[in-house]
Amino acid sequence: MALTYKSPISLGIFLVLVHTCAPSGFGKCPRHDYIQNFSLERFAGHWYEIERTFYLMELTVSCTTLDLIDNNKGQLEVTVTTLSRWSGNLRVSEGIASSSRKDPSLFLYRVNTILPQTLAKYLPGAGFYQVLDTDYDRFAILWSCSNFGVIYTDLVWIFARGKEIDAQLRAKIYEFLKTKGIDSERLVLPKNNNCTDEY
């Protein structure tokens, strides 16, 4: 029996669910090398989202920025600011990214909340993140991955210190992702047309 859709909205929801559940690969999450001598102090500061893979939680937002403060405890105080594409209002989410004992470029991010930790770890955005590459001054590549039995799904973000990156740097980033087995064709440009002065 063929599937029929009575409205464009139901078709859209179906496509989003299929894309969200689509695996990035088979097996467990790949392991990527850590950045040698990663510096929390140099990584801290203001970052702009330049590109990312599809992420359901960012469907209705744009103008995403990160503000990272090194608290000198092996942690970064994180402020994520986005602009709602529906209301035009700024949204702010805060949390703490704690460096792993394995390597400072691997973080466990916890969202600031009054919920108990057993529930807070399931909040959107909470989990492990790895900085795959950065030169601290121009760009950073952030990666997260989740295992689902025989498949895994991963997310990639490219951040920059400025609102744009040049074609040469973008090509260098794409080449780096290729060496990690990550297809740059999966990346999408965020809709940053109506960003406010805060962006």
Automatic annotation (TrEMBL):
Signal peptide: 1-27
Presence of the UniProt keyword Disulfide bond in the record: yes
Key word Signal present: yes
Keywords: Disulfide bond, Signal
A cellular-component GO term for this protein: cytoplasm
Gene Ontology molecular-function annotations: pigment binding
GO biological process, one term: response to reactive oxygen species
Family statement drawn from the similarity comment of this UniProt entry: Belongs to the calycin superfamily. Lipocalin family.
Stored PANTHER family: APOLIPOPROTEIN D, GLIAL LAZARILLO, ISOFORM A
Name recorded for this polypeptide: Lipocalin/cytosolic fatty-acid binding domain-containing protein
